[in-house]
Specification:
The longest helix has 10 residues. The model has no long low-confidence stretch (mean pLDDT 97). The protein is built from four helices and 40 strands.
Length: 546
C-alpha cells in the first residue's frame, strides 16, 4: 500500500527480546481510512482477523489489528463501538475508547453511557443495557438488529418486539413501534427493528405499558461525546498523552491484565497525523512480550503523541489483506469480536509474481504476472516501462472495479529492471498511484538432475549429474542441501564461469566425505553478475541401498 510502511524488528526490552510488528500509515482522509469492523458484521459472534479482512477485500485493501476486549461466550465487545455515526455497542465508563475524527485525528477518552426510554402515555425508564446482556436480576435491555438474529436466552424475561427502529445515533431521540409483547427470551430480532427485553421486576412494567401499535421513544446517551466523530472503538487503557507515557492508567483493569509480560496491541498517532499500529509478540522463546507500562514506552519510542491499548494475550494480531504478519501466542488466530483496519481505496498493484524471472523457455519462472486492482470505478493510466525507460505496454481509460492482470512470457524481453506503474482517479476525484519493480535476468537456465531418485551405497556413494546453462558470464555456486536448508556439500564456487553449458557430478557424499543418509535433497545453482542474482533449485530424493 503506498505510503504505508511495515517494520518487523526485535528489540531488547527489560533485558529480554521482544518482536515488534509496526505499521505506519497516512492520516485518515482521501483514499485512506481507519475503520472499526465487527466480526460477521454483527455485535455478537466472533471471527478471525483474516476472515474480517477477506470480507473487506472487494471494497478496499486493508492492514489492521485486533481491537476491543470481548466476552468469549457471546463474542460481544466489552466497550464502545460506533460505525458511521451509529452506536452498535455501549461504552464502559471506566475504560478508554478511541474516536476517529472526520479531520483524521484520534480522540481518546472515557465515555459514560446513560440510556432511557418511554412508552407513549407513560413515564420514562432506565435502559440498563444496549446490545449487551444484562447480568442484573432486573432491568431493561435493548437489542438492535445489529446484535444478531435472536436475543439471548435469559431467565425471568418478557420481550417487546419493535419495528420501525431507525439508525441508533448517540444522544438523539429515536422512535419505534411495538409489534407485540411475548413471554420468555430468544426471540427473532426483525430486520430494521429491535427487541426490548425486560428482566425480573421490569417484566410487570413492560406487560402493563407495552401494547401492539404503541409508540416508544428511546435515547442512547453518551456523555462527553466528540463532535465530528463517526467511528469509535473501545479498548484501553490510554498509553500516551501529549507525547508522554501513561504508566498508571487508573482504568478498570486488574494488575493481572497490566503487569505481566504478554503479547500486546496498540493504536497511536504521530504529531504529523500519521498513524502507528503496533503488535508485540509474546509468551514464546522468540519474544517475551511487554507489560502495559513497557507498551506505553514503546509507543513513545515509535513517535506516538497519543496512544491507546487494545486487547492483549492470544488476541494480539496484525494482518495485511488476510495475511497474518505476527505470531499469535495461541499458535493460531483467535476469533475476535472486532478489529481496527486501515483502509486504502486507491489503485493497488500487488507484488509481481516473481521479483526476478527468466523467460528463456526452460519452464522455470518463464511467465510473469502483474496486477492492478481497483475497488472504485476509476480512470486509469497504467504503463509498463522497459529498462531503458521506453513504454512497453499501456492502458488508459475508464475501468470498473476488479483486478487487471498482465502476463509476460516473451523470450525476447530485454534484460534489466522493469517498472509497472498504475495511476487512477476515482469518480470523486481522489487520485492514487502505485509502482512495482521486477527484474528480467536470463543468465541462468535449464537446471537438470539426472535422477529424481538417487540410489547411494553405504561405502561407494552414488552418482548424480547436475546440468545448467549460462547465457552470460557469472559467478556461480552449486550447492547440495537438505530440504530444510542445511548445506551438505558445495560442488562449484567459481567467480568467472563463461557462457555455455555445464555439468557437475555429485557422488552422494557430504563435505566431510561421508555418504549421506536418505531423504529429500535440493540442488541449487546460484548465478550473479551485473544483471543481479538468480537461483534455480531442483529437488530429488536420496535412497540408501545395501
Amino acid at each position: 500500500m503506498p505510503r504505508v510502511r511495515y517494520i518487523n524488528e526485535t528489540r531488547l526490552i527489560g533485558g529480554q527480546r521482544v518482536v515488534f510488528h509496526v505499521v505506519f500509515a497516512p492520516k485518515p482522509g482521501g483514499v485512506y481510512g481507519l475503520r472499526p469492523v465487527l466480526s460477521n458484521n454483527t455485535v455478537s459472534g466472533r471471527a478471525s482477523l483474516s476472515a474480517m479482512q477477506r470480507h473487506m477485500l472487494p471494497k478496499a485493501n486493508v492492514v489492521g489489528v485486533n481491537a476491543d476486549f470481548f466476552t468469549f461466550a457471546t463474542g460481544h465487545p466489552n466497550g464502545l463501538l460506533v460505525q458511521g455515526g451509529v452506536l452498535q455497542s455501549r461504552p464502559l465508563s471506566g475504560r478508554s475508547a478511541v474516536g476517529i475524527g472526520l479531520d483524521g485525528l484520534l480522540r481518546i477518552a472515557r465515555i459514560d453511557y446513560a440510556g432511557t426510554f418511554q412508552l407513549d402515555g407513560f413515564g420514562g425508564h432506565r435502559l440498563r443495557e444496549y446490545n449487551r446482556p444484562t447480568w442484573a436480576d432486573d432491568g431493561f435491555t435493548l437489542f438492535s438488529s445489529r446484535w444478531g438474529t435472536h436475543t439471548l436466552h435469559r431467565s425471568y424475561t418478557t420481550e417487546a418486539i419493535l419495528t420501525n427502529v431507525h439508525r441508533t445515533f448517540p444522544n438523539v431521540d429515536r422512535t419505534a413501534t411495538v409489534l407485540r409483547v411475548v413471554r420468555g427470551s430468544g426471540h427473532a430480532i426483525p430486520t430494521g427493528g429491535a427487541v426490548l427485553q425486560a428482566r425480573g421486576k421490569a417484566r410487570a412494567i413492560l406487560k402493563t405499558q407495552a401494547a401492539a401499535g404503541r409508540g416508544l421513544t428511546f435515547r442512547l446517551g453518551l456523555s462527553d461525546w466528540w463532535d465530528g466523530v463517526d467511528d469509535a472503538v473501545g479498548g484501553g487503557p490510554r498509553l500516551v498523552r501529549n507525547g508522554q507515557p501513561v504508566l498508571q492508567s487508573n482504568e478498570w483493569f486488574t494488575s493481572t491484565q497490566l503487569a505481566p509480560r504478554a503479547p500486546r496491541t496498540a493504536i497511536g498517532q504521530l504529531a504529523s497525523g500519521r498513524l502507528v499500529l503496533v503488535a508485540a509478540d509474546g509468551r514464546s522463546r522468540a519474544s517475551a512480550g511487554l507489560t502495559n507500562a513497557q507498551m506505553a514506552r514503546a509507543m513513545v519510542h515509535y513517535g506516538a503523541v497519543k496512544a491507546m491499548a487494545f486487547d492483549s494475550g492470544g488476541s494480539t494480531e496484525m494482518a495485511f489483506n488476510a495475511h497474518v504478519l505476527n505470531h499469535p501466542s495461541d499458535g493460531i488466530e483467535r476469533p475476535l469480536a472486532d478489529s481496527l483496519q486501515v483502509t486504502y481505496i486507491g489503485v493497488y498493484t500487488r507484488r509481481p509474481r516473481w521479483k526476478t524471472f527468466s523467460p528463456n523457455g526452460d519452464g522455470f519462472r518463464d511467465r510473469q504476472t502483474l496486477y492492478a486492482k481497483l475497488v472504485r470505478p476509476s480512470t486509469v493510466d497504467i504503463k509498463l516501462y522497459k529498462p531503458n525507460g521506453v513504454v512497453g505496454w499501456s492502458l488508459v481509460g475508464s475501468r470498473s472495479p476488479g483486478t487487471l492482470k498482465k502476463y509476460l512470457s516473451n523470450p525476447g524481453l530485454v534484460e534489466g529492471t522493469w517498472r509497472w506503474i498504475a495511476n487512477a482517479v476515482d469518480s470523486q476525484g481522489r487520485s492514487s498511484r502505485m509502482e512495482r519493480r521486477f527484474h528480467v535476468n536470463k543468465t541462468l537456465g535449464y537446471v537438470t538432475v539426472s535422477k529424481s531418485v538417487m540410489p547411494v551405497r553405504r561405502h561407494r556413494g552414488g552418482r548424480q549429474r547436475v546440468g545448467f546453462r549460462l547465457a552470460h558470464a557469472a559467478k556461480v555456486t552449486v550447492t547440495i542441501s537438505r530440504l530444510h536448508g542445511h548445506v551438505v556439500r558445495t560442488l562449484v564456487d567459481r567467480k568467472d564461469l563463461a557462457r555455455g553449458g555445464y555439468a557437475v557430478i555429485w557422488n552422494g557424499r557430504n563435505k566431510a566425505g561421508s555418504v549421506v543418509r536418505g531423504g529429500k535433497f535440493v540442488v541449487t545453482v546460484h548465478a550473479s553478475n551485473t544483471l543481479g542474482q538468480i537461483a534455480q533449485p531442483k529437488r530429488f530424493r536420496v535412497r540408501r541401498v545395501s
